Amino acid sequence: xxxxxxxxxxxxxTFVHNTVLTECHxxxxxxxxxxxxxxxxxxxxxxxxxxAIDVIGLVVAIGEMEKDNDDIKKHRLNIQIQDANINLWGxxxxxxxxxxxxxxHNLRIIVIIQFAKLSIWRDRPTVNTYxxxxxxxxxxxxxxxxxxxxxxxxxxxxxxxxxxxxxxxxNKVSEHDDFMVKFQLKTIVDVLEPVEKxxxxxxxxxxxxxQNEPWHYLACTNCNYKAIRPPGAExxxxxxxxxxxxxxxxxxxxxxxxxxxxxxxxx
Length: 267
Hints:
Layout: H1 39-43, E1 53-62, E2 76-81, E3 84-89, H2 91-102, E4 110-121, E5 124-128, E6 135-138, H3 143-153, E7 166-167, H4 175-180, E8 184-187, E9 200-203, E10 216-220, E11 227-228, E12 236-237, E13 242-247, E14 256-263
Parallel strand pairs: 1-7, 3-5, 8-9
Antiparallel strand pairs: 1-2, 1-4, 2-3, 4-5, 4-6, 10-14, 11-13, 12-13, 13-14
Protein name: Replication factor A C-terminal domain-containing protein
InterPro entries: NA-bd_OB-fold
Organism: Lactuca saligna (Willowleaf lettuce)
Protein backbone atom coordinates (compact mmCIF):
# COMPACT_ATOMS: atom_id res chain seq x y z
CA UNK A 1 0.00 0.00 0.00
CA UNK A 2 3.00 2.32 -0.48
CA UNK A 3 3.73 2.79 3.25
CA UNK A 4 0.06 3.27 4.16
CA UNK A 5 -0.95 0.89 6.97
CA UNK A 6 -4.52 -0.22 7.65
CA UNK A 7 -4.05 -1.37 11.24
CA UNK A 8 -1.53 -1.06 14.03
CA UNK A 9 -0.89 -4.78 13.86
CA UNK A 10 2.59 -5.82 12.76
CA UNK A 11 1.61 -9.41 11.98
CA UNK A 12 0.00 -10.81 8.83
CA UNK A 13 -2.36 -13.74 8.41
CA THR A 14 -1.82 -15.58 5.13
CA PHE A 15 -4.28 -18.03 3.57
CA VAL A 16 -2.84 -20.80 1.39
CA HIS A 17 -4.61 -23.19 -0.98
CA ASN A 18 -5.31 -25.79 1.72
CA THR A 19 -6.28 -23.42 4.55
CA VAL A 20 -9.44 -24.60 6.36
CA LEU A 21 -11.91 -22.04 7.73
CA THR A 22 -14.50 -22.95 10.36
CA GLU A 23 -17.38 -20.68 11.33
CA CYS A 24 -17.34 -19.55 14.97
CA HIS A 25 -20.79 -19.62 16.59
CA UNK A 26 -19.93 -18.24 20.04
CA UNK A 27 -17.60 -15.31 19.30
CA UNK A 28 -17.93 -12.69 22.04
CA UNK A 29 -15.64 -9.96 20.73
CA UNK A 30 -16.54 -6.87 18.66
CA UNK A 31 -18.00 -7.68 15.25
CA UNK A 32 -16.13 -4.99 13.30
CA UNK A 33 -13.19 -3.94 15.46
CA UNK A 34 -13.64 -0.19 15.06
CA UNK A 35 -10.94 2.07 16.48
CA UNK A 36 -12.49 5.54 16.29
CA UNK A 37 -10.01 8.38 16.17
CA UNK A 38 -10.10 11.44 18.41
CA UNK A 39 -11.31 14.25 16.14
CA UNK A 40 -9.06 16.74 17.87
CA UNK A 41 -6.05 14.93 16.41
CA UNK A 42 -7.53 15.49 12.93
CA UNK A 43 -8.37 19.14 13.50
CA UNK A 44 -4.97 19.87 15.06
CA UNK A 45 -3.16 18.07 12.19
CA UNK A 46 -1.33 15.78 14.62
CA UNK A 47 -2.68 12.43 13.40
CA UNK A 48 -0.27 10.65 11.02
CA UNK A 49 -1.38 10.50 7.39
CA UNK A 50 0.11 7.05 6.76
CA UNK A 51 -2.24 5.15 9.08
CA ALA A 52 -5.89 4.31 8.38
CA ILE A 53 -8.53 5.80 10.66
CA ASP A 54 -12.12 4.99 11.65
CA VAL A 55 -14.61 7.84 12.08
CA ILE A 56 -18.24 8.02 13.18
CA GLY A 57 -20.49 11.04 13.07
CA LEU A 58 -23.77 12.76 12.35
CA VAL A 59 -24.02 14.05 8.77
CA VAL A 60 -24.68 17.80 8.83
CA ALA A 61 -24.09 18.69 5.16
CA ILE A 62 -24.00 16.88 1.82
CA GLY A 63 -22.55 18.23 -1.42
CA GLU A 64 -23.27 17.47 -5.05
CA MET A 65 -21.85 14.47 -6.87
CA GLU A 66 -18.79 15.61 -8.81
CA LYS A 67 -18.12 13.72 -12.05
CA ASP A 68 -15.17 15.52 -13.58
CA ASN A 69 -13.67 12.24 -14.81
CA ASP A 70 -15.11 9.44 -16.93
CA ASP A 71 -13.73 6.95 -14.41
CA ILE A 72 -16.48 6.25 -11.85
CA LYS A 73 -13.82 5.52 -9.25
CA LYS A 74 -12.89 9.20 -9.40
CA HIS A 75 -16.43 10.51 -8.89
CA ARG A 76 -16.66 12.25 -5.53
CA LEU A 77 -19.35 13.15 -3.01
CA ASN A 78 -18.35 15.48 -0.21
CA ILE A 79 -20.15 15.20 3.12
CA GLN A 80 -19.54 16.83 6.46
CA ILE A 81 -20.06 15.30 9.85
CA GLN A 82 -20.03 17.34 13.02
CA ASP A 83 -16.26 17.41 13.35
CA ALA A 84 -14.76 16.36 10.03
CA ASN A 85 -14.84 16.89 6.27
CA ILE A 86 -15.22 13.64 4.31
CA ASN A 87 -14.81 12.70 0.64
CA LEU A 88 -16.63 9.58 -0.52
CA TRP A 89 -15.09 8.24 -3.74
CA GLY A 90 -16.49 5.96 -6.43
CA UNK A 91 -18.80 3.20 -5.18
CA UNK A 92 -18.93 4.76 -1.71
CA UNK A 93 -20.23 8.02 -3.17
CA UNK A 94 -22.97 6.20 -5.07
CA UNK A 95 -23.86 4.10 -2.02
CA UNK A 96 -24.56 7.31 -0.12
CA UNK A 97 -26.46 8.76 -3.09
CA UNK A 98 -28.66 5.65 -3.29
CA UNK A 99 -29.38 5.89 0.42
CA UNK A 100 -30.48 9.51 0.02
CA UNK A 101 -32.67 8.67 -2.97
CA UNK A 102 -34.31 5.74 -1.17
CA UNK A 103 -34.74 7.55 2.15
CA UNK A 104 -35.76 11.11 1.27
CA HIS A 105 -37.45 11.71 4.64
CA ASN A 106 -34.69 10.28 6.82
CA LEU A 107 -32.88 13.42 7.92
CA ARG A 108 -30.81 11.93 10.74
CA ILE A 109 -27.93 10.09 9.11
CA ILE A 110 -25.15 8.46 11.09
CA VAL A 111 -22.15 7.21 9.14
CA ILE A 112 -19.09 5.16 9.96
CA ILE A 113 -16.11 5.10 7.63
CA GLN A 114 -13.65 2.36 8.50
CA PHE A 115 -10.12 2.17 7.09
CA ALA A 116 -10.24 5.75 5.79
CA LYS A 117 -7.23 7.82 4.71
CA LEU A 118 -6.49 11.23 6.14
CA SER A 119 -5.10 13.83 3.75
CA ILE A 120 -4.03 17.38 4.51
CA TRP A 121 -4.13 20.02 1.78
CA ARG A 122 -3.11 23.57 2.68
CA ASP A 123 -3.60 22.86 6.39
CA ARG A 124 -7.12 21.53 5.77
CA PRO A 125 -7.66 17.93 6.90
CA THR A 126 -10.01 15.70 4.92
CA VAL A 127 -11.02 12.09 5.53
CA ASN A 128 -11.17 10.01 2.32
CA THR A 129 -12.42 6.56 1.49
CA TYR A 130 -9.44 4.48 0.38
CA UNK A 131 -9.98 2.53 -2.85
CA UNK A 132 -12.02 -0.66 -2.17
CA UNK A 133 -10.44 -1.14 1.26
CA UNK A 134 -12.69 1.21 3.22
CA UNK A 135 -16.06 0.24 4.64
CA UNK A 136 -19.05 2.58 4.77
CA UNK A 137 -21.93 2.11 7.21
CA UNK A 138 -25.01 4.34 6.82
CA UNK A 139 -27.62 4.15 9.61
CA UNK A 140 -26.76 0.45 9.91
CA UNK A 141 -28.38 -1.45 12.79
CA UNK A 142 -25.17 -2.16 14.69
CA UNK A 143 -24.22 -1.45 18.29
CA UNK A 144 -21.86 1.44 17.54
CA UNK A 145 -24.44 3.42 15.55
CA UNK A 146 -27.28 2.66 17.96
CA UNK A 147 -25.17 3.85 20.91
CA UNK A 148 -24.21 6.98 18.97
CA UNK A 149 -27.90 7.74 18.33
CA UNK A 150 -28.62 7.51 22.06
CA UNK A 151 -25.80 9.95 22.74
CA UNK A 152 -27.33 12.37 20.22
CA UNK A 153 -30.71 12.09 21.92
CA UNK A 154 -29.14 13.64 25.00
CA UNK A 155 -27.24 16.28 23.04
CA UNK A 156 -28.81 19.75 23.08
CA UNK A 157 -26.72 21.21 20.24
CA UNK A 158 -28.81 22.62 17.33
CA UNK A 159 -27.24 20.27 14.76
CA UNK A 160 -28.20 17.25 16.89
CA UNK A 161 -31.91 17.62 16.24
CA UNK A 162 -33.96 15.40 13.93
CA UNK A 163 -33.55 17.78 10.98
CA UNK A 164 -29.82 17.56 10.62
CA UNK A 165 -28.23 18.08 7.23
CA UNK A 166 -28.27 20.70 4.51
CA UNK A 167 -27.46 20.28 0.83
CA UNK A 168 -24.34 22.14 -0.30
CA UNK A 169 -24.43 23.59 -3.78
CA UNK A 170 -21.21 23.05 -5.69
CA ASN A 171 -19.13 26.19 -6.26
CA LYS A 172 -17.32 24.69 -9.24
CA VAL A 173 -17.61 26.41 -12.59
CA SER A 174 -17.44 24.93 -16.04
CA GLU A 175 -14.17 25.00 -17.95
CA HIS A 176 -15.64 27.56 -20.37
CA ASP A 177 -16.80 29.88 -17.58
CA ASP A 178 -13.50 29.48 -15.74
CA PHE A 179 -11.50 30.67 -18.75
CA MET A 180 -13.91 33.00 -20.54
CA VAL A 181 -16.17 34.46 -17.83
CA LYS A 182 -14.51 34.23 -14.43
CA PHE A 183 -11.33 36.15 -15.33
CA GLN A 184 -10.41 38.83 -17.85
CA LEU A 185 -8.57 37.79 -20.99
CA LYS A 186 -5.28 39.67 -21.46
CA THR A 187 -2.27 39.58 -23.73
CA ILE A 188 1.24 39.64 -22.27
CA VAL A 189 1.63 43.27 -23.37
CA ASP A 190 -1.44 44.23 -21.36
CA VAL A 191 0.09 43.06 -18.09
CA LEU A 192 3.77 44.00 -18.47
CA GLU A 193 3.35 46.77 -15.90
CA PRO A 194 0.35 45.89 -13.71
CA VAL A 195 -0.64 48.65 -11.30
CA GLU A 196 -2.15 46.26 -8.78
CA LYS A 197 -2.19 42.57 -7.93
CA UNK A 198 -4.80 40.76 -10.02
CA UNK A 199 -5.62 37.51 -11.80
CA UNK A 200 -5.95 37.19 -15.58
CA UNK A 201 -6.13 34.62 -18.32
CA UNK A 202 -3.07 35.17 -20.51
CA UNK A 203 -3.33 34.70 -24.26
CA UNK A 204 -0.21 34.44 -26.38
CA UNK A 205 1.65 32.55 -29.08
CA UNK A 206 4.63 30.36 -28.24
CA UNK A 207 7.48 31.59 -30.46
CA UNK A 208 10.19 29.29 -29.16
CA UNK A 209 11.39 27.13 -26.30
CA UNK A 210 14.71 27.80 -24.57
CA GLN A 211 16.09 24.37 -23.85
CA ASN A 212 18.99 25.63 -21.72
CA GLU A 213 16.74 27.56 -19.32
CA PRO A 214 14.58 26.22 -16.49
CA TRP A 215 10.97 25.82 -17.56
CA HIS A 216 9.42 24.86 -14.25
CA TYR A 217 9.97 25.04 -10.52
CA LEU A 218 8.89 22.88 -7.59
CA ALA A 219 6.25 24.83 -5.70
CA CYS A 220 5.16 24.42 -2.09
CA THR A 221 1.60 23.05 -2.12
CA ASN A 222 0.74 25.35 0.79
CA CYS A 223 1.84 28.74 -0.60
CA ASN A 224 3.07 28.16 -4.22
CA TYR A 225 6.54 29.58 -3.47
CA LYS A 226 9.63 27.68 -4.58
CA ALA A 227 10.57 24.91 -2.15
CA ILE A 228 14.00 23.34 -1.69
CA ARG A 229 15.04 19.76 -1.13
CA PRO A 230 17.43 19.45 1.85
CA PRO A 231 20.93 18.16 1.01
CA GLY A 232 21.06 14.38 1.01
CA ALA A 233 17.28 13.96 1.05
CA GLU A 234 15.55 11.70 -1.45
CA UNK A 235 12.23 12.30 -3.19
CA UNK A 236 9.24 10.41 -1.85
CA UNK A 237 5.84 10.48 -3.51
CA UNK A 238 2.41 10.52 -1.87
CA UNK A 239 -1.11 11.40 -3.12
CA UNK A 240 -0.35 15.14 -3.16
CA UNK A 241 3.13 15.28 -4.69
CA UNK A 242 6.78 14.97 -3.71
CA UNK A 243 7.45 15.06 0.02
CA UNK A 244 10.44 15.98 2.17
CA UNK A 245 10.96 19.54 0.89
CA UNK A 246 11.49 22.75 2.85
CA UNK A 247 9.64 26.02 2.26
CA UNK A 248 11.55 29.16 3.27
CA UNK A 249 8.68 31.58 2.64
CA UNK A 250 8.34 33.45 5.94
CA UNK A 251 4.58 33.80 5.42
CA UNK A 252 4.02 30.07 4.85
CA UNK A 253 2.59 28.03 7.71
CA UNK A 254 4.64 24.96 6.78
CA UNK A 255 8.38 24.42 7.01
CA UNK A 256 8.28 20.81 5.83
CA UNK A 257 6.06 20.55 2.78
CA UNK A 258 5.11 18.66 -0.36
CA UNK A 259 5.75 20.10 -3.80
CA UNK A 260 4.24 20.03 -7.27
CA UNK A 261 5.81 21.34 -10.51
CA UNK A 262 4.66 24.72 -11.82
CA UNK A 263 5.46 26.11 -15.26
CA UNK A 264 7.61 29.19 -15.88
CA UNK A 265 6.85 31.55 -18.76
CA UNK A 266 8.83 34.56 -19.96
CA UNK A 267 7.80 37.27 -22.38
